[in-house]
Recover the amino acids of this structure.
């Protein structure tokens, strides 16, 4: 059974020095620092990589963030994977709970997150399942 | 690039405005940004409007306690934009990257857009380091001609 968790969140991105690769004209690397509220009371830390192109409106980013806190009262950690691609102005974004990344009472967590932005406020909707760990 | 020194943001104060005025008068800065200088009267009217508008977020950028420039966020045609101006004396010290990074933690509108002249490679790199990518190209009028401009975009994450 899928359960929905939702609430607001705040995020801070901090640019990081390039990670050893030759100074690229189009790569960005940032640390992620988030606070989730509502059904998911948690903090997350992670990294984001962006890649622009010379074609306006075509770009991509990936991010991994480790979330630590409670989901509907169950405590543990899990990892969220972001995969965002913009093709000539059309954005596509998938945010997925990494399979078997759940720990503690969140062991076996699976799901997908959506980010909603309205009136300058960020909120999330996490549709998740909690299965028995293998 | 030298990135030592302390970069801070604080609210804009009246005493900052004469410094901003001088910073936006610099012909090299105008050419770099493809943005013309305002005369004293137009500058005063512009900042009076900006300071009175609560929907505009505006901060003074301090470098080791000195006024190095300003950074603002406002809405234009429904899109939230960010813009900054660094005094020429403060270029090449990594100030814009650190100021923008700090500012992005204070404003939540996403996606967020920035307009930058295509020849302003340093500013494009500042935006890229902060997660912006090129979204579209435009042409803007400057100094009696046309200049290519990039609209860059920061996604929600």
């Amino acid at each position: 059974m899928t359960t929905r968790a939702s609430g607001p969140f705040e995020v801070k991105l901090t640019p990081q020095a390039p990670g050893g690769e030759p100074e690229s004209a189009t790569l960005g690397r940032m640390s992620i620092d988030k606070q989730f509220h509502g059904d998911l009371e948690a903090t997350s830390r992670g990294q984001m990589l962006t890649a622009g192109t010379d074609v306006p409106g075509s770009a991509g980013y990936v991010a991994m963030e480790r979330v630590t806190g409670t989901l509907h009262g169950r405590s543990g950690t899990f990892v969220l994977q972001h995969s965002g691609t913009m093709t000539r102005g059309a954005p596509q974004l998938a945010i997925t709970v990494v399979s078997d990344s759940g720990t503690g009472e969140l062991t076996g967590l699976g799901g997908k997150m959506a980010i909603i932005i309205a009136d300058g406020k960020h909120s999330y909707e996490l549709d998740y399942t909690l299965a028995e760990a293998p | 690039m030298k990135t030592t020194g302390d970069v801070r943001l604080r609210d804009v104060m009246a005493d900052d405005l004469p410094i901003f005025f001088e910073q936006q008068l610099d012909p090299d800065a105008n050419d770099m940004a493809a943005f013309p200088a305002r005369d004293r009267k137009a500058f005063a009217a512009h900042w009076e409007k900006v300071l009175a508008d609560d929907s505009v977020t505006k901060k003074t950028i301090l470098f080791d306690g000195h006024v190095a420039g300003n950074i603002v966020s406002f809405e234009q045609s429904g899109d939230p934009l960010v813009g900054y101006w660094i005094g020429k004396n403060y270029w090449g010290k990594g100030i814009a990257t650190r100021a923008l990074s700090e500012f992005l933690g204070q404003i939540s509108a996403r996606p967020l857009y920035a307009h930058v002249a295509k020849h302003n490679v340093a500013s494009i790199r500042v935006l890229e380091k902060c997660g912006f990518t090129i979204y579209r190209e435009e042409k803007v009028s400057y100094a009696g001609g046309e200049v290519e401009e990039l609209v860059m975009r920061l996604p929600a994450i």
